[in-house]
């Protein structure tokens, strides 16, 4: 089961963090470049429609193959019209979930990104509300280093 913990949005002042022009190598280490390009406001970068955007914390593993893990924060935009293949936050029969919205013809489906979970065919027997489209996932890395 994948559940969403909705977080109450709180207006906040800009949070400017330093953005360096040097990239960080994910391969072999390279010499560090201490040149500061400018500051970056994460609100400006992650939130296109502030009045229609909320954060939700993901719990569960039904979307791991889409890169959404338990504990991640989802940046969800309610102003966007959900389209085929969008990842959406939905409420199905009173229970919140995050899934990929897919269509086969006119038939909508909520599709997990983990083969252990079933696809949900959205028929008239379901009470469904799409709360928004997931624009970004903010990963919280908690895994300890493994011994080599």
UniProtKB/TrEMBL annotation:
Classification via Pfam families: Peptidase_S24
Top-level taxon in the UniProt lineage: Bacteria
Ranges for domain Peptidase S24/S26A/S26B/S26C: 18-134
UniProt GO molecular function: DNA binding; hydrolase activity
Keyword DNA damage: yes
Statement: the UniProt record of this protein carries the keyword Transcription: no
SUPFAM superfamilies registered for this protein in UniProt: LexA/Signal peptidase (SSF51306)
Key words of the record: Autocatalytic cleavage, DNA damage, DNA repair, Hydrolase, Plasmid, SOS response
Ranges in a coiled coil: none
Entry's Gene Ontology BP terms: DNA repair; regulation of DNA-templated transcription; SOS response
InterPro entries assigned to the protein according to its UniProt record, in alphabetical order: LexA-like, LexA/Signal_pep-like_sf, LexA_repressor, Peptidase_S24_LexA, Peptidase_S24_S26A/B/C
PANTHER family cross-referenced by the UniProt entry: LEXA REPRESSOR, LEXA REPRESSOR-RELATED
Sequence similarity: Belongs to the peptidase S24 family.
Stated name of the protein: UmuD protein
